[in-house]
Write a structure and sequence with these properties.
By secondary structure, the protein is of the alpha/beta class. The protein folds into 2 domains: 208 residues, Quinone Oxidoreductase, Chain A, domain 1, CATH 3.90.180; 147 residues, 3-Layer(aba) Sandwich (Rossmann fold), CATH 3.40.50. It is built from 11 helices and 18 strands. The strands form 4 sheets. Strands 4, 5, 6, 9, 10, 17 and 18 form a 7-stranded mixed beta sheet that branches. The chain has a 6-stranded parallel beta sheet with strand order 13-12-11-14-15-16, with helices on both faces. A hairpin with an 8-residue loop joins strand 2 and strand 3.
Length: 383
């Protein structure tokens, strides 16, 4: 794909035509297949960038959207986990999170969220919850921002997007999830470590999907002993490959060899009560089990409950007497994307991240990718 700069009036931004035309796979709503829409050109405002997508992975939230389990505006270009190369820049160029100018041809990942940088929440250090937040793969397709998601040949990065350069040698399958699952885990671990240091901690993780597996590896690298609980035996075995010292079946009898108590005792020895609990499954029963299991002075971080569900019953007296902290994590700040890329650069090939991406579909078969099961991630390759 060769971008060509078209010179419009400066007030309109920089026009960039792409030949052959860029293609976006557009979802019209529940029960509809994706439609390929040609986008022959984009208009890049100062600070914007155009990136050619190398690989996009399918996040669970993409699947939930097309199944109708979460509301979404349409028409919509889904996809928010991807890696690609910069092929065009708006006037003045764009910058990476460390303040360096982005170069044409540079391989990058970018944040799922675009904050305004000016509102009260942004000024409080919560850009991920900006009052006028825009999110790749979540916004209604509109004139001027047609290439707004990862299920396309190109993505139009808006000014204010956190952009991080990534190593050339790392496989795309390792890097693409950085923009969602890896960065979200970095945010969750930071939230936990603000209360209890990770080094030497006993960490209990519920859910061994992409988030849980990533958390197991990141916590292990930080010096923690990790126990992962998941009802799927294949996922439990995968957790061992990602550093888990022990695994548990939440359906097993409490005192059985496959149960949580035995796993915690195996990993923690005498200190068998976890001081950090991370919930990535969204299961109400998992939430209840973590509240019961976490030790006095411990912290429970919730990151998997992103859809409506039953209320969680919490006894205030238990919070007080057990000195517990409950924290929620949704989206992430630019520094967490930096941490995600740094971790993958150092340990991305130490653990089998690439193997967690199963089938790879061509862009035109994005509906098949969204329907595929059996792996923590499947991928879409536009090329």
């Amino acid at each position: 794909m060769t971008p060509r700069v078209v010179e419009p009036p400066a007030s309109l931004g920089m026009g960039v035509s792409v030949y052959p035309s860029a293609t976006a796979m557009v979802w019209q709503g529940v029960g509809h297949l994706h439609e390929a829409v040609a986008v022959p050109g984009v208009r890049l405002a100062p600070g914007d960038a155009l990136v050619e997508v190398e690989l996009a992975t399918v996040c669970g939230s993409d699947v939930h959207t097309v199944l109708g389990h979460r509301p979404a505006p349409t028409p919509l270009v889904l996809g928010h986990e991807q890696v690609g190369r910069v092929v065009a820049l708006g006037r003045g160029g764009a910058k990476t999170t460390d303040g360096r100018r982005v170069a044409l041809g540079e391989r990058v990942v970018w944040s799922v969220a675009v904050p305004c940088g000016r509102c009260a929440r942004c000024r409080r250090g919560l850009p991920q919850r900006c009052v006028s937040l825009q999110k790749y793969g979540h916004e209604r397709m509109r004139r001027g921002w047609e290439l707004s998601g990862g299920f396309a040949t190109h993505t139009h990065l808006l000014d204010g997007t956190a952009i991080v350069a990534v190593p050339e040698e790392l496989p795309a399958a390792v890097l693409a999830p950085a923009s969602c699952s890896t960065a979200t885990v970095a945010a969750a671990l930071e939230a936990a470590a603000a209360i209890v240091p990770l080094d030497g901690a006993l960490v209990l993780i519920t859910g061994a999907g992409m988030l849980g597996l990533t958390a197991a590896a990141m916590a292990t690298e930080a010096g923690a002993k990790v126990v992962v609980s998941d009802p799927d035996p294949e996922r439990r075995e995968a957790a061992r490959l990602f550093g888990a010292a022990a695994v548990a079946d939440p359906r097993a009898a409490p005192e059985s060899r496959a149960g949580l108590a035995a796993a915690l005792a195996k990993a923690g020895g005498r200190a068998s009560a976890p001081t950090i609990a991370l919930e990535f499954s969204g299961s109400p029963s998992a939430l209840r089990s973590l509240l019961t299991a976490v030790d006095i002075g411990g912290v429970l971080v919730l990151a998997g409950s992103v859809s409506d569900g039953p209320e969680l019953s919490v006894v205030p007296e238990q919070l007080v007497r057990r000195l517990l902290t409950i924290r929620g994590v949704h989206n992430y700040a630019p520094r967490h994307l930096e941490q995600a890329v740094r971790f993958l650069a150092e340990a991305g090939t130490k653990y089998p991240f690439a193997e967690q991406v199963g089938a790879v579909f061509p862009l035109a078969e994005v509906d098949a990718a969204l329907a595929a099961t059996g792996s923590p991630r499947v991928a879409v390759r536009p090329g």
